[in-house]
Amino acid sequence: MILDDASASAQHWRKCVGVCLVNDDGLAWGAQRIGQTGDVWQMPQGGIDEGEDPETAARRELYEETGVKAEHVELVAEYPQWLAYEFPEEIKQKNEWLAKYRGQAQRWFLFRFKGKDADVDISGLGGEKPEFQKWQWMPMERLEETVIEWKRGVYTEALGAFKGKL
Description:
This is Nudix hydrolase domain-containing protein. By secondary structure, the chain is an alpha+beta fold. Helices cover about 25% and strands about 30% of the residues.
């Protein structure tokens, strides 16, 4: 679902960012969350801190979740609107802090990776706990197919827009 700034700022949406990181082969970075079973992959994402602009949040989340530093990426594009998904009830029941939100409103960014695979570190940086158990480069279409179902609409919209920017 696409939201305008006023709708995204409403209290029932958690404001976040999402990051599509692509290498020189046009493959996107995808990872499996810790404890995830099956063929389910996602891209880095996370909340926007108070007073933080979305691009700064995207760079911070990228570093915290992947270890990729600012000097190893180049901003290619930003999706021009907020993309949102609703949390399923079972997710809200498992995560009490999420229950106050309808879902997440995200600004998406496309970055080109200029580093080496050795620059990736999913052990959790910036004082954050690790979120991922493994990662790999994959076609964007594979990420669309393997992301958890309730995030799929956002992935399809963002990745569809980004494919034309590469």
